[in-house]
Design brief:
CATH topology of the largest domain in chain B: Rossmann fold
CATH superfamily of the largest domain in chain B: Response regulator
Largest sheet of chain B: 7 strands, mixed
Number of domains of chain B: 3
Strand order of the largest sheet of chain B: 7-6-8-9-10-13-14
Distance between the termini of chain B: 97 Å
CATH architecture of the largest domain in chain B: 3-Layer(aba) Sandwich
Number of strands of chain A: 2
Radius of gyration of chain B: 27 Å
Oligomer: heterodimer
Shape of chain B: globular
Chain lengths: ~350, ~400
Amino acid sequence: MTVRRLPELLGPAALVLATALLGLAVSVSLQNYFLDTLVKVSIVVALYVFIGNSGVLSFGHIAFVALGVWTAGVLTVPESQKNAIMPGLAHFLLHTNVGNVASLALAAGVGMLFALIVGLPLMRLSGLAAGIATFAVLEIVNNLLRYWQAIGPGLNAFSSVPQTTGIWQAAIGAFICIAVAYAYQRSRFGRQLRAAREDPAAAAAAGISIYGQRLLAFALSGGLAGLAGGIYVHLLPIEVDNVYLDLTFLTLAMLVVGGAGSLLGAVVGALAVSGLDSFLSAAENGVDVFGWHFDLPTGTSVIVVGTLMAVVLILRPSGLSGGRELSLPRRRPRVPDLPKVRAPT
Amino acid sequence: MSPRQERSNMTGRTRARIALGIVSAAALVLAASAAARVHAASPIVIGWAHDSTGPMAPFDGPALAAAQIRVKQINAKGGVLGHPLQIQTCDTQGDKPTVSKACADKLIAAGAQILFTTCDVDLAAPAVQEGINKGLLTVAPCIGTDQMGPKRFGAKGKLAFSFGNVAQDEGSAMAQFAWSKGWKTADLATDSVIVYFKNVVQAFKARFTELGGKIVDEETYQDPVFHGNNVQNAVSRINQHQADVVVTSTAGAWNALAPLINGLRTLGNQTPVLNSWAGDGTYWLPKSPAITNYYFVTYANAFGQDPSAAINTLAKQVKAGTGGFITGPAAIDGVVTAIKEAKGSTDGATLAALMEKFHNVPTISGNVSFSPKLHSVFGRAYRIVEINNNTPKELGTITAKVVPTIR
């Protein structure tokens, strides 16, 4: 790792740290929005690992988030309350409980394993076909979790899950996602996938297995999405409908607005869109900022966020970051003075 | 010290004393007026996290409006033991979990001593958990399950109550009504999006079979509002099993009820459809074809045909969409009774302990009872309403004789 590339990692991490610190400074009520924003950063970075590096659109990643929610939720609801929330739950799930960290690790593991399995056939596809196929994965997972009550609560909310996601756990989750995304994109595998993104024919001719590299990125991003889901369900009681279409389009919009081509773009997009949406949501119920009182009409957030996203994309089609990473300026080697040559006389 | 210096010092001391006196007097006046303000105004604050735009809006809005009228009436009579009631609201904006939780925290930070939530236990869960974790009595006006309590929320759930009818009671009343109509066989169509819907149908089944009825077919579906897409499948399968009544529990606002009934009618199936309070109201009725042969039980008649004149007046004032509006003021009545019994205390544990002992406590919605096991109401008189050609008609009232165990 060259020093010049360090800001590529430290820049996004610093933004997350600043968000976490700001979240600690505000009221308990407003802190909820900061927590939500940090979880969104994790999800969008997970999306970036695959979409950003491969250039293939995926509408299915929220399925891996949903599986993370499901895994961590089912395994941490206290056994005494499982019957009330999940009356049809299968016996072994009814009597299996794990701790906070184990549930997060399992959420990541389930997300990664499922992404690997569905990726085996799907990663042979490209372009629109891949997008639609991943959307089918989202539909299948959503319908399974929604209707199959032997494995979970259906549409009931995961209440009574230990609320262990505070500012620091949410921030650490985002740090992990950023660190993994950075390590991956700087690795040989990340470079190969980006090469395939830029010119598939040339990459294949150079001996790169496009299928293999896409599958690796898909599984890795599925794992990060699962982790984000686990963190989300430990934050507040959510249900399967909260990790479906709305979240799919919102997080994709965050990635595109930030700039899908860079890790910085993923983090900036998540912070900018989620931050704006959070502020407007809070303002719809009245909020004081530096002595100013904002009280906006209901529905403002949807209109303003939608409009601003469109404006950003018109003015900066490659997103707020322009698809660039932060890096230190390249130091130009000093050109040694040429020896003075006396003109022959 | 020269006389001049002495005079000068004296003058300084006197000025200082006068200044001190003025400051002290001002402080006393301020303190007294502040104390008077606290004493005169110290209100009992109810924080209400309600949904103004999402799926619960048709139920939360009228309940909140009716509760505000009730609060005005109580305050006009001197409040609760001299303390005025005050409702502070926060909009959960379609029951987004983050906004719902933030609302609860905001209301608690603003001084709410009692927290009211939206009328579905899953959508209310983020706010309920914040309320009970902070030790507040947390009340839902119209959650219709046994889940507002320890069953769903563990030990802290002792602080959670609902003034909605528990589904077991409501399903039981529906079964009694069906049996009294001479309906001996039933098709069950369960909307599985929320616990309340499922429990009502389960309770109907338990009581109906106990009375001697027979269940011909059981189908499930989910509402389009929650991205459900299978109500027409349920209609096709129900139509293949002729019964005396089709029983469901689903909200008109959630877009599966009208397709369910009209789907059957389109197939030439005129079987009566019986629903719970969820299916109350005329706001969801399609203009064409009109809804026929449809029945539901509810808290109060929202169409001006209620046996209680006070309820009819209130329904008109709040432009009630369903009879559920009455649970708002009923919850206020119940909480006021608990505060009075607690001699003015608003401590969550104290109020909860008293409410668990409620037995036939009068409220505007009728007598209310709770038990350590059931923190939702049982034993209320349900209004039965029939709709034919989109016109509602009150058929009378019915009270469940037993509260069946559903699992």
